[in-house]
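Hey team,

Filing this mostly as a record. A colleague (T.K.) asked me to run one chain through the structure pipeline before their review meeting, and I want the input and output archived in the tracker in case anyone asks later how it was produced. No errors, nothing strange. Just documentation.

Input sequence:
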Amino acid sequence: MASTDAPIGQTDDLATLGNLDEKILLGELKHRYNHDKIYTYVGDILVAVNPFRDLGIYGQKHAEMYKNKVRVDNPPHIFAVSDSAYQSMLTGSAVSGKKNQCIVISGESGAGKTESTKFIIKQIIELCKGKSQLEQQILQVNPLLEAFGNAQTTMNDNSSRFGKYIQLKFKEGKVMGAKISEYLLEKSRVVFQNKGEENFHIFYYMLAGLSPEQQKKYKMQVANKYSYLTNGPSSASTKQARMKEMLAELNNAMDLVGFLDEEQDEMYSILAATLMMGQIELDANEDDAAFVKGSDQAVATVAELIGINDEELRQVLTFNLSSARGDVFQRNYTKHQAQDARDAMTKTLYGRLFSWIVNKVNQLLAPEISLHVSETTEIGILDIFGFEQFQSNSFEQLCINLANEQLQYFFNQHIFLLEQEEYKSEGIDWTYVPFVNNQSLLDLFLAKPIGILALLDEECLFPKATDHTFVEKLNQNFARNHHFIKAKVASSNNFSIDHYAGRVEYTADLFLEKNRDTLPSKVMQMLRTSTNDLVSQIFRGTVTRTGTLALQSRRRRTRRSAKPKLGTRETVKKMTVGAQFKNSLSVLLELLNLSNPHFVRCIKPNTSKSAKLFEDKFVTAQLRYTGMLETTRIRRLGYALRPHFADFVKRYKVLARSPRLSEDKHGCVKILKTVGLTDWHVGKTKLFLKYYHQDQLEEHMQKLGKSAVHIQKVARGFLARCRYKSRVKKAQQQKEEMNSFLLQLAKLSLDQQHKLSKVLQGDKKIPKSFFESIRKGDKVIKIEAPSIQVQQGTNKKEDKVSSEEEEDGDDDEDEEIIEDEFVRIRNNLFGKEGTRQASIHWFKATQSMAVRDQTGTFAKWFHGIITRRRAEELLEHQPVGAFLIRVSESRFGYSLSLKAESRCKHFMIDLTPTGKYLVVGEMPVFKNLQELVKFYKVKPISPFGDVLKQACGQAENELDYSELLADKKNKRASGVPSSLVRKMKEKGMDQEEEAVYSPDGYSLAPSTGSSRRLERPVSEASYLYLDATNGKELSRTNSLDEVPPPLPERLYSGAYRLSRPPPPAPPEEDTSDSFPAVRAPPAKPYTPKNR
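Output structure:
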């Protein structure tokens, strides 16, 4: 690509500029920014300048522009990065041949990394043609995690206080699941925020958005009374309307992703308790022993919210018990130690809740267990905290800036070091481009045994060590290191480090405490025995070597020694936060190195977070420390694409127009000359191409592909017409043969009839009245051969399949964690999904009562398993806005059919893992179909403004959902899924004698004899509720009229409701939205016969 001297701001790719220096680079970016062109290429790297406002360039129109397009066809855009990564995943990278891709987004805090991440994921889902529930769940992960992991800082109003690596898993281009890896949540923010900063968003959402009933339930107070919220402005009061809206969006996101109502309730209880912990005031008596000051109300409230004993909570906050030689000693805490214990418990409570949320998301979004690793490819998106420099920088800023140093090193390795070393080894003539290598600075942090993190871990081992002794060790060991600058005052706890992005001064106060992250053992024991299921669960989990929470993982055992040495005992050493963070960075870099990287450099235009303001000096500093000038030079002069000969020939051999092509350098040269590319080099084992050569090659491939598709279309049409003529001729011949056969059959039948008549007339035993009755009727029975028509269109069976095909969605599956591997297990309790019988079983077991109103009647708009074509026939003569909801045969769910202006439209209705309902492609989630219909009678269901107006009922003399009702002739449980039958047998219950079939599930009415085989005696009229996954009894009622207690909403994790159906009632006419009910008779206890 030739150099350009285009007017300033008109160059989309800065690597094509003829003259380039720091001033020109800055001028180009500034001019483009001022004209709302926030994206610019530097070769294959995207530079994004944060506009701090919505430019309206992320809608459907722009999404379509960047689908399957060559990069140079459109202006630079974040969507182009998504497209490049997706296409490279499908075909393999031209550089490395790797199919796994990663997108590394870097920049300082407030540069727009999190927003870029959301746009990238949105476009990748768009490229997958993602309309399934799984893809909608993935889109909701970012806003969900932002609520719990983001906060307002002086640098960024929505600053990520944790890092995340999102891995999207694909099979043949379709997304199959996702996994989130979290890095270093800033837990200390829960108990303390710097001046002008806020706590995590979720607390302000709750204070502004919870209803009065919920506020009372969770014992909430006014925002300015919480000591954990008084260090910064309160968004709960200044942005109340927005915070309330955000809470509603969060609740909807949790419903859509799959969090149960019970789990959400327990989450809010924990969050309310977290805030209330700060209200526990601690003081010390004359002996310096800590005690709870003032009223015990705060202690009692916290204890009630998280299900622990208030006296036990008071004890673990004020003293510790230790034992020696059989004696137990009480060691009272000082006031400071008690406050530390309170804050440590608060931080751990919030930190483990956040880790559980990530763990839960990974369970819900995991690929199916049936998928093998070799079958999948992935795109990883890294959104990690940006480089930070505040007025006061603590342990968190040290770790955050270390992570950014690692990413800068990864960038330098790929763009400068490895590339230039490859030029040398492959014999390419090259002038070395210098760059700033930060390897020595990483050694300062990570070296063993003398590195900052190693020395910090060592100091944490000594009980009497302090933050000051740690700083003294740093000064002593790194006095000659040019990256380390000690404080001028010897008594100071400060030290400075020259990072790649500039010098940062750190305050070592609380470094040791934050690195140890200790929690008294009594606190752990107390929380593990909590009556709050979620609290108990998250504190029974274990923390892995990378700092993540493992809830069901098993410990790995190593065979170091067959027998333990004498005098030794097994000990488990708790890893420090620094060590965990170091391990997590190591795992992250391994993942990145196994993938083909795409880089996005985010630039912050000003320090005031203002729109349309570009501060030259501030931006220049960012361009300088990120090495953008050197990056531009190496992209302009270098060879970004370096495929092996064989890989290149396999990918582009069709361009050579040669039937035989050797997979060596000669084959590569032939391809390049045929296409007409210039400015490339051939090495010893690889081909060296400019970054823009890939676009040119792909453009030729697209042209060739379009030509091939056209030829295939013509050929297929010709072959189809030939087959069609042959089949019509054959069908006509079969018709004639069949008609001839039927005529012969009719003739033979008449002959036999005459013979039989003569025999009968000769039989004297037959009365004469019989023959007289025959004579009065037709003497000859006419048998007319049916006419067989040759069907010349698509047969009805194919029509049925194709009409339901478009509504097919993703399976709803259960989840299971095995050794930190997140998998979803396909639910086959009802049979193979996509079959009519399975859909009937699913409906009867889980939906029959769920879609009825309080009187037990089906709504007028409800229909059974009917095809799309049948739905359109029912709506044909209805007014615009008429609608019906039908049970889908192709999946476990529903379809909404709506009469629009020009045609009928069809929408899939899916169930979330918690059994709630949503229209696929829409965000709102509803508890039942009635709420869904009510909502879309007011709000449009699509961008075209379609709303539901009038329900379309059953056709005259037709009941298309009759097969979904109970079988009146055979009420026994012949339709019970085999898995449930197996569990029933394990319980000692006979399916044939004790299970009674009912419309709302499987009603069990055990006889007196059955009581001996159950876990505990039941009366003859008892009704059981079993979990089909393990046969465990969930609940039971003691009478037919007793209302059962609430059960977990676990439709897809195997819970079956076994209850008595409503009593029969005569059908009533309803002129609104209901249809006369067809009621099933009540299930009666079955009395077994004498054996």
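Quick notes for T.K.: Residues 700-786 form one domain. The first strand starts at residue 39 and ends at 42.
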